[in-house]
Amino acid sequence: MCGIVGYIGNEDVKETILSGLEKLEYRGYDSAGIAILNGNGLHIYKDKGRISHLREIVDFSINGTLGIGHTRWATHGKPNQINSHPHQSSTKRFTLVHNGIIENEEELIIEHLSDATFESDTDTEAIAQLIQKFSDEGNSTDRAIRYTLGLLEGSYALAIIDNENPEVIYAAKNKSPLLLGKGNGFNMIGSDAMAMIHHTNEFFELQDKEYAIITRQDIAIYNLQGRKIERETYFGELDATDIEKGTYPHYMIKEIDEQPFVIRRLIAAYQDEHGNLKVDSDILNQIRECDRIFIIACGTSYHAGMVGKFLFERITKKPTEIHISSEFVYNTPIISEKPLFVFISQSGETADSRAVLVKVKQMGYPTIAMTNVKGSTLYRETDYQLLLHAGPEIAVASTKAYTAQIAVLAIVACAASDSCNFNMLSELSIVANVMEALCDNRELYNELAKEFLTDKKSCFYIGRHVDYYTCLEAALKLKEISYIQTEGFAAGELKHGTIALIENCTPVIAIITQEQINLNTRSNIREVRARGAAVITMSLKRISSEKDQIVIDNVHEFLTPLVTAIPAQYLSYYAALQRGCDIDKPRNLAKSVTVE
Ligand code: AGP
């Protein structure tokens, strides 16, 4: 998704904006640009390509203390120089960057801008032209912006410069993420805290249909009617060191390695001084009083939700459904009398999930966000929140957030149950130790990836029971960073059609952790081997056979998805590495999908 950085202060703005944009690269983008306002006017540098390319075209002799920058993930108009942001109004007085989609752009152009000329194919340019129009009609910049915002339908996060007022940057937000950073003698705008963390850790939330007037000394927030809104700042959880790669070549392998420590952090975060589970009692009451839990999520979070369904039903005996966010909105199932909605989202900004939240809130149902980002949209707009404490996850491929989600689901299920017959926290401590041993064994996965995956075009993960959920997640990991077409399959389903795709040397990775389906899955292994498949078997030690290539130390049967994820993550990492893929920023993908 697009990234926005803005700065107004007393220091030269170029490096602050450019390095801020670099901290947002993980969101995925195809072009970048920066605008700097100084006594000699406005200077814009923008082009298709990476920020490293933008650095080459910026004139570093130009200095200024007010600027905005943008990384674009193309939605309207292909990635090229003209469509890159910033965009300007026809007189070049107003310059802005935008994250989101204006859904009524065409109607606005017909109704208000029929005689305007446009340079780009973007919806963003229409916003600049509208501000210009209302300004030309004699309105102040403040009013011109508010009138424009009042006409926009859809999502936007905006940073706006008025050439004729070098003391102010304007910001506005609706649905797309935007944070305001409070500094000492300077203030900032950012799509998230990471863009600003090297300058400030104190932020103002900007909520939907609000806008801000930002000077070097002050941040003033208003609603679209121009009424000032008093709001307290908050301090983010981020630490600048959290978002550095350190000695790692990629964020993804750093984040895979962090998982044992994340689990240990969660054990501490959800434990009271007596060593018992500590979960917000209101949340536990909601779980106990509802008649059905609806888990809503996308992608990897959806796969964590599948394990969550299993855990809630096994441990709390509560009927639980799991739904893909983008399906639920338009294909809404029958909802029970007393539902509880649980939104699982690493970023807390996924537009598909937020769309469901808006819908179920209108229905008056209770909502819980399980997210890694405090202050994110889903965090702010739900009734209750459960943090993942996984630390910033920067690689597009989600790893530590996935296992953190499962761990928190397990903790909450156990805490809500009056018959949980095992000590979840001590079982999770065992999981952390097993994870650590798996991370230490990474060379094995490198060798297996080289032997079985790197030069292949397709791959299958097969499993049953909770192993099937891991197969879906493992398949997503492999395909999204190595671009190998991979399917996660219920092993018992293979014979109903898909086994037709198995041919000589087709890689099949079988995952077996549950006693009751051990022999069944092993017979599926024999079926695919008989058709020429090259099989990797991943099993739990207590049911392993001597030929299994990946054997995982024993953990509680309910918690095996936490450990089987690790080898799968490494296999995808090494396959992608050997294939020369852009591991942290895979093609076409964004870390946080903030458009529907
Ligand atoms: C997972 O590796 C992907 N990056 C993607 O599927 C992601 O899980 C999905 O977009 C949901 O994101 P969220 O957890 O931030 O809502």
Account of the protein in words:
This protein has about 600 residues and is an alpha/beta fold. It folds into three domains: about 240 residues, 4-Layer Sandwich (Glutamine Phosphoribosylpyrophosphate, subunit 1, domain 1); about 190 residues, 3-Layer(aba) Sandwich (Rossmann fold); about 140 residues, Rossmann fold. About 35% of the residues lie in helices and about 20% in strands. It contains 18 helices and 25 strands. An eight-stranded antiparallel sheet has the order 3-2-4-1-10-9-11-15, with helices on one face. The longest helix has 19 residues. The mean pLDDT is about 95. It binds 2-deoxy-2-amino glucitol-6-phosphate (AGP).
Provide key terms for this protein.
596 residues; alpha/beta; Glutamine Phosphoribosylpyrophosphate, subunit 1, domain 1; Rossmann fold; eight-stranded antiparallel β-sheet; seven-stranded antiparallel β-sheet; 35% helix; binds 2-deoxy-2-amino glucitol-6-phosphate
